[in-house]
Amino acid sequence: MVHARVAAVFAELAPGDVQLIPVEVDGQSEPYVLLNITRVVKCIDDEASDEVHYWEPGDDRPDKTGQYRSVIGMRIDPSKVGDARVFRTWGWSPAIIISEEVKQALERMGATGAKFVAGRPCATPCTSRPRGVRGGTTSGWEARRRPRRQRCERSCRT
Question: Could you tell me the pTM of the whole model?
Fold first, then answer.
């Protein structure tokens, strides 16, 4: 749920990516809107992400088989995003991705309550993290793992 001023930013910059539903909030005289992110993009980069796990047929969740069970240090493939400015990642719904343009508009208006996590790597590769090698898998649904990355001295993740 967001204030109507925040909703206006999404309506202007990402009208095809969201659904805005006016709501009444008890004890509030100002207008609020339920912000529903409707666009879903299959763009998680398994190789660039630190660690990904999939739901497997043996996990007793057939409705989730093949979807992400856990994503740590998520990275996306920008070439798969297209014109989306606001979206959820396919198979991993906790993540909401917004474009830099939407982020800057929200910051300019002084929106509060949002936490922005930078998704861009450093311009130069760090040498302080180990280069992990993914182990072989016996099934397409098996967890893909590699050693956790360490933060470099510039507090980035590349």
Answer: 0.70
